[in-house]
Amino acid sequence: MLLMSRLPKPLRAVYIHPHWNTDVNQTSDSVFARLGQSGINTVFVDVYYPTGIGQGVFTFERKGRWAAVGQKPVFLGSFSLDKAIEAARNHSISIHATVACFGELPAIDPSSQLHRTHLQEVVRFIVTQFPSIDGVHLDYLRYMHEFGLEANGNTRPITTFVENIREIVQDKMLSAAVCAVGDEEEYGMTRRLMGQDFRELSEHLDFMCPMSYHLSAGKKLEWVGQVSRFMSRFSRWNCRIYPTVQAYYEFVTQITVSTKSVKPGKPTQALAFEVPLDGTLRFKAVWSNPKNRFSLVVREPSSQIILPDRYDEHIRESTTESFKLRVSAKGSWTVELVTDLLSSNGDTVTVLVSDVNQEFPGYIALRAAISVVLAYCGGFCVYALNDLSTDEFNAIRGCSSGSFTIECISSGYLCGRLRQSMLSRILSLPTYHGRLLNHLLRREAPRLSTSQNDSHL
User: Fold this and answer.
1) Is the peptide bond before 106 cis (omega within 30 degrees of 0)?
2) pTM, whole model, 2 decimals?
């Protein structure tokens, strides 16, 4: 039975990863105090990830006895889950244990009965040893098609696995991070390649969190709105949709290069990215064949090429080039991949642009993305690779306060006048036009009916 009354209203969630940086206690009382002050009412904390079929690692301190027949997970001991739960309780925050199901490296076949049974015992151990945990959050709940594992349209392995986990968690909350899709074509691809059927999954989950990371996916802000709008159709009385937006500055693309499509010394493809303020970025290209050679060319908004003598920590190796660059001109920049030498077999090159010193915390894009999500859904989640910055906390606090939060009417959608007059303008804004976005929201917000509760939840 799914207990909707246990859902925070509205959901304001973040992910934390205590094992990524053990020098900082991400589950301390002070951290949860700051989260609570920012309007966060739910935290997803990493507790398990697989290291192979039927084996894995618990990130928290050793507790209890592993009574299952299968191989016992290793206890990493990065933090105390009991203390994290207590700290969360002190600040009225729900805490959900995040379980990475079918991995990334290694990628594990969801139809493997050995691993499915192991994961069921992992979840059983968590809810038994930590009875006050509020819920379980499933991550990597899909076929990892990018590593050669495809569902071929078979959604039953993922659906039946979730159904089995529901039987274990009983009345605790059960949720999942799922692929973000903005139309029927993307949904069909998700079912075919990754094995996720949202209609089937909604029968067993309390809520789903579409991973609408528009910057990393190379999408514009309006895609977040498309995802929120399209996936809201899968919202049921027993299952809600809470899209996850990213709070980090990163752009990445993969480029397939062949002798038929490129000419040596000429740009192969360009990746565009926004620079909202002064800061330092890292540029990196990685390929697989050491016989090939590629290089990166960076252009300012004026299209002027940045000469290599401005690069810092410029490193060239057999299959990679990377360098840092201090950028100051605001606007749309581009980085071009140039093929210097290419074998007959071609290659695939990954091009990455990322923040170095967290000077680009993504709070402007975060603030805009949250406002778009709240136009269609009753809550949001925030995913950050680094610790949240003060500006990001302020963005979340602003979106959670009465002056900025958009109260939805019973259907879960904004009133027609708002959607026509404000949302169309929000979706057309570049991510760095935060001030204009805030001005529009402040001007249009009074037109909303804020007297009604969001019965959509």
Assistant:
1) yes
2) 0.69
